[in-house]
Design brief:
Number of domains: 3
Distance between the termini: 49 Å
Strand order of the largest sheet: 1-15-3-11-12
Helix content: 40-55%
Radius of gyration: 44 Å
CATH topology of the largest domain: f41 fragment of flagellin, N-terminal domain
Number of strands: 17
Length: 463
């Protein structure tokens, strides 16, 4: 606030400095209290944020183990990828397979025997009906608006109900030194079921000649490629499919057929990828230890003279409760798992007296090899470690959960402290105005007294 004069004219006092000091002394206790409470709330809020972040990271590793797919990774090899490439998926089982590619699936490709002077040449009018080996037929009406070769091509590709054939145009030699345009019809998918025929009605009244629209009927098309199914033999057993990508013959495997050769056998080997499982479990152990380390730092008690200081959540009941529950859920046995594999300790995951988790990879690998399903149940069954931890973490991290309520309360507290600081400042501003008014009045009065005294002294001296 501005002050008319820093120094009182009548009294000679530093009014501005005196008022400011008095106001500061008046407000300091309240501000000190607000600052202490604000710092404490911010420290605690930051600590809860760190705890929540560590819990969320741990929850991510738990979710990976909760998903049973984490215990189904397999590696697959093909002895000849020029013939068969193989990919694994859900349901893959370790094993060896001898596969022979007898025949690849092919898509029908038909070329019109009739050549036209150019794509813009008129073909004729009427209708073209395309009938697939399986499914519904569709019809294209050809009239003056689309009776050129390119107009027919575009109408076929845009036709309602066309889900199985593509039309294109090639410009090729006519054998006489010139060029002709021919319509090419290609099935969108391989397999016998995707074969098609072309018929219809030619407006010239003759549906059997090569003139007009009938020149595009099946009788006047040459099949460059005939539609056919793929045929393979798996361990001597025959399987026929309409596609060269086959995923329903061997459970969990997708076979990408590349080349057919009768009598040539490709060996496909599927093995459990224990390294991938070990990495997922190892990430869980790392996340657990990171969480415990964060919790210890948040709740530490700094010794006198050690220069460390107390953790921001020292003595916090929620911190103790959450970390205690997580350790309990992690250590407790799994009732649904076999007795010889019903806890983390039995598959090579232990926790020492300091709360540090360790993974014995050799022991885990042995357990995976001897009984993968039992190891998976330790984590993934309804009462498994991962499911128990997931439920516990969800209750803590969810909106309205224990941590969320505390953070909301602290934010409300900080807002209240801000309003309290504003109220104190408003009171001090009013006090400053009042003191200035009083000191100014005092200074005026002193000035008058001094003037009167000077007048009297001068008058007496003159007598």
């Amino acid at each position: 606030m501005s002050i008319v004069s820093a120094t009182g004219i009548g009294s000679g006092l530093e009014i501005n400095a005196i008022v400011k000091q008095l106001v500061s002394v008046e407000g300091q206790p309240a501000f000190n209290s607000i600052n202490r409470q604000t710092a404490a709330a911010n420290t605690r809020l930051s600590g809860l944020g760190s705890l929540r972040s560590a819990l969320a990271d741990f929850a991510d590793s738990v979710n990976k183990l909760k998903d049973g797919n984490s215990f189904r990774p397999h590696t697959v090899t093909s002895s000849d990828e020029s013939r068969i490439r193989v990919a694994t998926g859900l349901g893959a089982v370790a094993g060896n397979y001898a596969i022979e590619v007898v025949k690849l699936a092919t898509a029908q490709k038909s070329i019109a025997n009739t050549g036209y002077a150019s794509p813009a040449a008129t073909v004729g009018s009427g209708s073209l009906t395309f009938t697939p080996g399986s499914g519904s037929a569709f019809t294209v009406t050809v009239d003056a608006s689309n009776n050129s070769l390119q107009g027919i091509r575009d109408s076929i590709n845009r036709a309602d109900g066309n889900s199985f054939v593509n039309a294109s145009i090639i410009n090729v030699d006519d054998g006489l030194g010139g060029t002709v345009s021919r319509l090419v019809l290609t099935a969108r998918n391989p397999g016998i079921g995707s074969a098609f025929t072309v018929g219809g009605a030619d407006s010239d009244g003759n549906d059997t000649d090569t003139a007009g629209l009938s020149g595009l009927f099946s009788a006047n098309l040459t099949n460059q490629t005939v539609a056919d199914n793929a045929v393979i033999r798996v361990d001597g057993q025959t399987a026929t499919r309409s596609s060269n990508s086959i995923s329903d013959v061997i459970s969990g495997l997708t076979l990408d057929l590349r080349k057919a050769e009768v009598g040539a056998t490709v060996n496909v080997n599927v093995a459990l990828d224990t390294q991938a499982i070990e990495k997922t479990v190892g990430d869980f152990v790392t996340a657990y230890n990171k969480l415990q380390s964060t919790a210890r730092n948040l709740g530490r008690h700094g010794g006198s003279g050690d220069g460390v200081g107390n953790g921001p959540l020292l003595g916090d009941a929620s911190l103790r409760l959450v970390t205690g529950q997580i350790r309990q859920e992690t250590s407790a046995p799994v009732s649904s798992a076999p007795s010889h594999f019903n806890s983390l300790a039995q598959i090579g995951i232990t926790i020492n007296k300091d709360g540090v988790m360790a993974l014995d990879n050799g022991r885990l690998r042995t357990a995976l090899t001897s009984n993968l399903q039992s190891v998976a149940e330790v984590f993934t069954s309804s009462e498994g470690v991962a499911n128990r931890l997931d439920k516990r973490l969800d209750s803590v991290l969810q909106s309205g959960g224990a941590l969320d309520r505390q953070q909301t309360s602290l934010r409300d507290q900080l807002s209240a402290l801000t309003r309290r600081r504003e109220d104190v400042q408003l009171r001090l501003d009013k006090l400053e105005k009042s003191l200035l008014k009083q000191f100014t009045a005092m200074d005026v009065a002193v000035g008058r007294f001094n003037a009167t005294g000077s007048f009297l002294s001068s008058w007496i001296d003159k007598q």
